[in-house]
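input
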Amino acid sequence: MLFFRSFVFNIIFFSLTPLYLALMYIPMLILPYSFCMKLFKIWSNSILFILRYAVGIKLEIRGKENLENVLKNGPCILALKHQSAFETIICSLLLNRFVIILKKELLFIPLFGQYLLKLKSIALVRSQSSKSLRVLLNKSSEMLKQNYSILIFPEGTRQDVGSTTKYKGGVALMYSNLNVPVVPIALNAGLFWPKRSWIKKPGTIIFDILHPIQPGLDKRIFLNQLQETIEHHTSLLVKEIQ
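output
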């Protein structure tokens, strides 16, 4: 049954997404960011709906008040745990005005890449670390001045449940130079949408929006605190489900 339900979801997902992008391509080119973000949210909710009824996956977002309180004073940086494709699909439901930091290769995907550009995504070349860090800092600063929050996956790539890697220095560079709070977000999506697996498992994916880390810490202390906070709360979410 699990195999069949996952098969149904994948067929719908990989059919619906290109069709959706194709139908919205012309409006996407000529209409503003706000319209494209609404399309993003519609797509995210559509995928959630299909996941719920095809696979049995539901979403619970905790700690919304932590993010709401921060946004009252201006934009921020959101630092998410990265376990699966799920968080990249659903991140539009966290807030209304933000840009995503991603690898440049994604911009070369037909239709999808153009859509990411329209959403003002900040694309980085992994092999050009020093140049990428300058681009990251300059573009992030520009977006924050325009009241866009920044969404980043500090691990740089997806990690299996129970494993982690040292968080990249980009988020620490942003923290020490941009003078805005960083909001850590733990999650357990990898339990239900595992990395490199097309099998999806029923259950409740939890996003836990944690208390923000305010500006002013030493860069190394911040990075350690960010990683310890996200990894600790992620492990608690995993244990809660298991």
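quick obs: The chain has a mean pLDDT of 93.
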